[in-house]
Amino acid sequence: MAGQNVVAAAVGPAAVALLGLNIPIVPALFGVAGVVLGRYIAQSVRREGEERVPSRANFAVTVLFALAMIAFSSERELTPFRALGAGASAGFLGLGLLEFVASQFSERVRGAIEGFFNPRK
Question: 73 near 20, Cβ under 8 Å?
């Protein structure tokens, strides 16, 4: 066996074509697992006085970031452990990032509406 190349047999396809995306199976699964684990950790590390996110909203954010992680892992051709890391960081930081973007957007819209109806003279 010395000097010979040994190749392991693959079990199943390496990727699946879905909705025009060529999705690599293992990185996508690792990415989704990272999102789920990151969301679990984020729920357990709440600050004191911070209200708990309702289960429907938590489920919706988890599904949203899991789908985004599948698309991201297929587009960037991530290795499984890079997908796991990216998924965990997206799951952990996801809700805070969404809340920040939503607050910034609502402030901008509120300012535009106030500026339109109450222009400075």
Answer: no
CA distance 76 to 93: 20
Q: Determine which helix (DSSP H) or strand (DSSP E) holds 54, and give its type and residue range.
A: none
- Return the C-alpha torsion angle 78, 26, 59, 57, nearest 10: 10
Q: What are the angstrom distances between the C-alpha of 111 and each of 13, 97, 99, 104? A: 52, 21, 18, 11
- 20-71 pLDDT, tens digit each: 778 888 888 888 888 888 888 877 776 666 666 677 877 887 888 888 888 8
C-alpha dist (Å) from residue 96 to 7, 69, 81, 104, 120: 45, 17, 24, 12, 34
Q: Residue 93: what residue type?
A: L
